[in-house]
Amino acid sequence: MPILFASYRSRASRAVWLSLEAGFPLEMRMVLQAYRLADPLAADAPLNTLSPGFLALSPAGAIPVMQDGDLILSESMAINLYLARRYGGDLGPVDAAEDAVMLQWAFYAATAIEPDAVAIMRLYTDNRQDSAEGRDELAYRRDKLQRPLRVLDAHLAIHSHMVGGRFTVADINMAEVVRYATNDPDLMTGFPAVQAWYDTSQARPAFQQMWALRLAEPV
Q1: 3-state SS class at 192
Q2: For the whole model, what pTM was predicted?
Q3: What are 6-51's pLDDT values in tens digits?
């Protein structure tokens, strides 16, 4: 059984969603982000991203990390693509062509969308969106996302899903990146196909299960 070292309030949500969709067991070993603890190096501190035991698995001190037998993987996109190929059934690629397209969209999500989407999320979670500096940054991030979201919108306007005409790990990976941008209530209005696909993805029972686990975890 694969083991996921992470917290639910992290990019581990991608792998949790996938496991719930595909129905394969995924053991969760809680690792908290060090910034969530007053003293992450205290003797009685829970396992966290600065704990020596965790750093032995993840020298970068980042979650999630997956262990499956002798294989240890960090980077949530790589983890999800591996899990989908090995355990995901139809949620993974059916051939080399689908595998390549899933990789393409994962790279696109991680490089063209996620950095600015995460910046938008942080503006809102830090309640800075209405400050003068925050408004300027929000405008900058919105502008940078126009091109990649147009690409995604054009794709979803003619395809029901990211790859293969069915729900796959590619939809999970992309939807979990787009989620960061949806903190801005105005941004998605210009991309109706993305919004419709995103709403349908989040309406899935497995997403709802994952989200309940995430919300139940203390902040």
Answers
A1: helix
A2: 0.94
A3: 999 999 999 999 999 999 999 999 999 999 999 999 999 999 999 9
3-state SS, one letter per residue, for 38-85: CCCCCCCCCCECCCHHHHHHCCCCCCCEEEECCEEEECHHHHHHHHHH
Q: What angle do CA 159, 109, 48 make, to 5 degrees?
A: 135
Q: Which residues contact 39 (CB under 8 A, 6 or more apart)?
A: 45
Domain regions of the chain by residue span: 3-91, 96-204
Contact partners, residue 196, CB within 8 Å, separation at least 6: 156
Question: What whole-number distance in Å separates Cα of residue 140 and Cα of residue 143?
Answer: 5
Domain 3-91 is found in CATH 3.40.30.10 = yes
Residue in 54, 36, 5 with CA at minimum distance from that of residue 16: 5
What burial letters (b/e) apply to 20-47, b meaning 16+ CB within 10 Å?
bbbebebebeebbbbeeeeebeeeeeee
| Tens of pLDDT, residues 187-211 | 999 999 999 999 999 999 999 999 9
Class for domain 96-204, per CATH?
mainly alpha
